[in-house]
Amino acid sequence: MNSLEKEGVDAEEGINILKILASWVKNLNGEVFGSNAAKNAESLIHRAMAETAVMTPAGETATRLIALMIKKNKIHYADAVIEKAEELLNKKRGVVTASVEYAFAVNDATESRIREEIIKRTGASRVNLTGKINTDLIGGYRLRIGDEVIDASVRSQLRKLLDTLQSGQADGGI
Predict the structure, then answer these.
(1) Which of 35, 86, 118, 154 has its CB 3.0 to 4.6 Å from that of 138, i.e. a possible disulfide?
(2) What are phi and psi of 140, to 5 degrees?
(3) Could you tell me which of 101, 105, 143 has the C-alpha nearest to residue 121?
(4) Domain definitions of the chain by residue range
(5) pTM confidence score
């Protein structure tokens, strides 16, 4: 991220090119590491980008990073580097990533309300929301935003009600 920004490069473009290059390098036959492999890969990437006329400053920076990772035998870390770069870019742009588990399929209006609520709570500029069905839930949903979990499932609400009733009985209130 810092290298991309220092060179005045579009970080999102750089990350996208990095994804493409990392995928391509990982699909090469044989082992890809060391100085010669790095030079060969960098040369191949430059030729391919020149032929397609897509070599941009972001592409140049991504190419150098991939070549360095090959040279240092660290290409297996490419996915983790890309994931971290995306996290940093999202944080800088105020984008929040959240995941939600539903008891059953929901419509777009429901997901839209959840996004709006996340924006209100976090002050995010945008929300990347991924949803999936969790058949273990009786009803409701479970939302994860970073380390925070908001459990609005029926099971959770029933558990809270039971705890309240049990604590009331212990106090002699019921």
Answers:
(1) 154
(2) 80, -155
(3) 143
(4) 2-90, 95-170
(5) 0.59
Per-residue pLDDT of 25-77, as tens digits, reads 777 665 555 566 667 777 777 777 777 656 678 878 888 888 888 888 888 89
How far is CA 42 from each of CA 15, 22, 59, 65, 100, rounded to the nearest angstrom? 17, 12, 11, 10, 41
Domain made up of 95-170: CATH architecture:
3-Layer(aba) Sandwich (3.40)
Instruction: Check residues 7 and 16 and name the one with the higher pLDDT.
Output: 16
